[in-house]
Amino acid sequence: MRACVLHAAGDLRVEDRPEVDLAPDEVRLAFGYGGICGSDLHYLAHGRVGDSIVRDPMILGHEFTGTVLETGSSVTDMRPGDAVVVNPSRPCGECAYCCSGRINLCQAMRYMGSAAKRPHEQGGFVERPVVRRANCVALPPGADPRLAALAEPYAIALHAASRAGDLTGQTVLVTGAGTIGALCAIAARRQGAAHIIATDVEDATLARVKALGVDRCINVATDSEAVAALIAEQTVSAVLECSGAAKALDLAVQAVRPAGRVVQVGFLPIDEGLSINALLTKELEIVGSYRFVDEFETAVADIVDRRVDVAGVVTAVHGIDALDLAFAEAADRRRNLKVLVHF
Question: Cα–Cα distance between 257 and 254 in angstroms, integer?
């Protein structure tokens, strides 16, 4: 069966992989749709994401849906033909973090399509992936498998918005209007934000999030007056920093009002200086947001029940035979948010 396998930076191949035997608690799926994530792009471009370095061939992908083809002997509540979306996280369930409910901080976490540990955790971009039943969330009849593939990044956005505190009636700033930024804006609105501002360095990117319901967009690269006005207003109660750029975090601490909260969602580069003395003078809270805890099922329900409209986040869909094109388009943030692949 075909699989999307990364061998090293710049070396991504579609190659044959053998079928995997089922354990009693596993199911075999027919791959539906999968979203190309920023981490997939980093693995392809650099052979690593932070300290997670690709040392052996690894199947990419952790955002995907599928249809059940076969079930293990102990699986009694799923049958062939059932549609599912896969939660890619597998916490240990035994460490102090898991026992306290903060499973996203599990130090023994296995996450599909990740090189954080060795052997690497193989991803889901394979024609017939085998996954644990416990990682499958059933989709109701009629659910769009393309949109359901957004459950994992939307769960990340829901967790980030929850880390910002009570957003009811508040003004929220989202810095970085890529896929996660767009979904964070949707999540913030879902959690009651009254006014949402987005910043980015690309007009096309801002236009897309504007269409998704953002109230005000600012190009920080070209509109210095709007940036200055945003800082002077001091009306932002929470910032979701999704760009991972030092300048964006610097803007966040300047724009947020005193006693406000900044949620760092994007990974920051380690070689950029930061000047955030306002952290001290405003008594701000800066918190991190990493993956998700129990938001995955909520994300699925929000999407399939159409409590949120994420259709505009999907901007391209390609077959696996056009894998190079799909990854190139996913990397082109001027033209695309989320690019999906299918077999």
Answer: 8
Count of C-beta atoms within a 10 Å radius of residue 141: 6
Judge whether 197 and 170 are in contact, CB under 8 Å.
no
Q: Is the CB of residue 199 less than 8 Å from the CB of residue 248?
A: yes
Average pLDDT over residues 181-208: 97
Over its C-alpha atoms, the chain yields an Rg (Å, rounded) of: 20
Domains contained in the chain, CATH given: 2-150+310-342 (3.90.180.10), 155-288 (3.40.50.720)
3-state secondary structure of 19: coil
Is 271 a residue whose pLDDT tops 70?
A: no
Helices (H), the chain: 38-46, 96-99, 145-148, 151-163, 179-190, 203-211, 224-233, 246-255, 278-281, 295-304, 323-331
The rounded distance, in Å, linking the Cα atoms of 255 and 234 is 6
Average pLDDT, integer, range 68-90: 98
Tell me the pairing of strands 64-71 and 83-86.
antiparallel
Contacts of 240 (CB under 8 A, 6+ apart): 160, 161, 164, 172, 173, 174, 175, 181, 184, 185, 188, 263, 265
Distance CA 81, CA 88 (A): 21
DSSP class per residue in 233-295 = H--EEEEEE-S--HHHHHHHHHHEEEEEEEEE-SPPPTTS----THHHHTT-EEEE--S-SSH
d(CA 102, CA 97): 5
pLDDT value of residue 115: 96
- Beta-carbon count within 10 A of 19 CB: 11
> Nearest Cα to 160, choosing from 301, 252, 287, 245?
287
Q: What's the predicted TM-score (pTM) here?
A: 0.95
Q: Are 173 and 252 in contact (CB under 8 A)?
A: yes
